[in-house]
């Protein structure tokens, strides 16, 4: 079709061109390639030496020229011919354009089906069916809420299977529903070979934000404008706490979550939060360096400042103020992450979630056969008491869960150890390993 020219004095052909241009506006690249066909003298057009007209090789039609110095005797025939040619050309363009549209739609349909099959295959590897119906996740596969739910389900399954391989036991999978909206999947092993208690929970809840929860968020600077006193919300996350038998294997916690709130004007506020932290009973420099190094590597893929900032935030957050000590040796912690873009924030959270197994399981395997004394086990119990104090007094997730109607208390308090100990006025002997541990907790340090 190269070299076809639409011109002439008849308005019909120009209208046809305008129709074609209008239809093609949404496909600018396609339009631009076709607009090169509309020129007054294309390369394959022969202009008569006497200016009486021009001849188009592509159509074999001779047209009278406006430059001939006046109207020809058969101008009406010329105009009708132009109109017919213009209409035919546009019809051809439109047929090709429609064919292009159909091909593109078929391509999108194929991609949609491929995306739905991918979601279905992922779901087969989860510890249980996702909280949201699979068909709904397939329909909303591009929405962040659907993508985040798939990520937390994948994280739960990967971590549970890694722990099962080490422990030899199986997680009890417990599915629960919340009458106000949503539910969750709790995976817990208790009294295992390696882990005294370990839980990996997923929750996906929605409804109207309770006033106590809204008050907590406003205290962090959130500006929340509800309609008729209501704030529709959607929250989801994966959370885990691991309490090993052996005091030389550290306790580990991680949590990654996503929050959406719909405001009175229909707009949505969204943010991500979470972190991973380690709570050893005895300090091991190599373990600390490996743990923090793995998290730093995950952070550095996205921003050089993430690790130092989120490491400091973690030390500050997991601080037991009434004891004057941190809960453990930290890791990373962040909240209200809503920049630079939603896609980049999600990608960062995914990197952190993917780092959970490699940052912790090598430490577990390293100390599987370490021997320990009764005194060392007692010190572990005392440190667990501190863990309980922080979770019940300060932890934001526990407080949010307890303030949310319909929350599952068993899943919220899953983070607490099976056993703990509180000794009156306990102070470890100076120069002991226990005193060394306490010194680190009272004065957090850099590990990488």
UniProtKB/TrEMBL annotation:
It holds the Pfam family Coprogen_oxidas. Transmembrane segments: none annotated. Its EC number is 1.3.3.3. GO terms for molecular function: coproporphyrinogen oxidase activity. Keywords: Heme biosynthesis, Oxidoreductase, Porphyrin biosynthesis. It catalyses: coproporphyrinogen III + O2 + 2 H(+) = protoporphyrinogen IX + 2 CO2 + 2 H2O. It is an enzyme of class 1 (oxidoreductase). The keyword Oxidoreductase applies. The keyword Oxidoreductase applies. Pathway: Porphyrin-containing compound metabolism; protoporphyrin-IX biosynthesis; protoporphyrinogen-IX from coproporphyrinogen-III (O2 route): step 1/1. GO terms for cellular component: cytoplasm. Belongs to the aerobic coproporphyrinogen-III oxidase family. Homodimer. This is Oxygen-dependent coproporphyrinogen-III oxidase, mitochondrial. It comes from Synaphobranchus kaupii (Kaup's arrowtooth eel).
């Amino acid at each position: 079709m190269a070299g076809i020219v639409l011109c002439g004095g008849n308005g019909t052909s120009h209208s046809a061109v305008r129709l074609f241009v209008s239809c093609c506006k949404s496909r600018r690249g396609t339009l631009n390639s076709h607009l090169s066909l509309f020129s007054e003298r294309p390369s394959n057009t022969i202009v008569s030496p006497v200016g009486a007209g021009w001849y188009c090789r592509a159509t074999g039609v001779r047209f009278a020229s406006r430059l001939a110095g006046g109207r020809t005797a058969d101008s009406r025939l010329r105009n009708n011919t132009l109109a017919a040619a213009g209409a035919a050309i546009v019809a051809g363009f439109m047929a090709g354009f429609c064919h292009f549209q159909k091909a593109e739609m078929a391509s999108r349909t194929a991609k949609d089906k491929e995306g739905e099959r991918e979601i279905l295959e992922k779901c087969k590897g989860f510890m249980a069916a996702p909280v949201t119906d699979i068909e709904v996740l397939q329909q909303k596969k591009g929405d962040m809420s659907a993508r985040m739910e798939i990520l937390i389900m994948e994280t739960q399954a990967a971590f549970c299977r890694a722990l099962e391989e080490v422990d030899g036991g199986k997680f009890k999978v417990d599915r629960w529903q919340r009458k106000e909206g949503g539910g969750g999947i709790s995976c817990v092993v208790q009294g295992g070979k390696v882990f005294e208690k370990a839980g990996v929970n997923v929750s996906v809840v929605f409804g109207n934000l309770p006033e106590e929860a809204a008050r907590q968020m406003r205290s962090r600077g959130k500006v929340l404008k509800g309609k008729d006193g209501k704030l529709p919300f959607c929250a989801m996350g994966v959370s885990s706490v691991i309490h090993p038998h052996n005091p030389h294997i550290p306790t580990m916690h991680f949590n990654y979550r996503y929050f959406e709130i719909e405001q009175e004007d229909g707009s949505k506020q969204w943010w991500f939060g979470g972190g991973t932290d380690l709570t050893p009973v005895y300090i091991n420099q190599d373990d600390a360096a490996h743990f923090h190094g793995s998290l730093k590597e995950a952070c550095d893929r996205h921003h050089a400042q993430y690790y130092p900032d989120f490491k400091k935030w973690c030390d500050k957050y997991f601080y037991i103020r009434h004891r004057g000590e941190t809960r453990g040796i930290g890791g990373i912690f962040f909240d209200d992450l809503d920049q630079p873009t939603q896609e980049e924030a999600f990608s960062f959270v995914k990197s952190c979630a993917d780092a959970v197994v490699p940052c912790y399981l090598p430490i577990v395997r390293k100390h599987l056969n370490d021997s320990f004394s009764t005194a060392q086990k007692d010190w572990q119990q005392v440190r667990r008491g501190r863990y309980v104090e922080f979770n019940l007094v300060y932890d934001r997730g526990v407080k949010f869960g307890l303030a949310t109607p319909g929350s599952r208390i068993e899943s919220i308090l899953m983070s607490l150890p099976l056993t703990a100990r509180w000794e009156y006025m306990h102070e470890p002997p100076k120069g002991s390993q226990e005193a060394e541990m306490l010194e680190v907790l009272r004065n957090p340090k850099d590990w990488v």
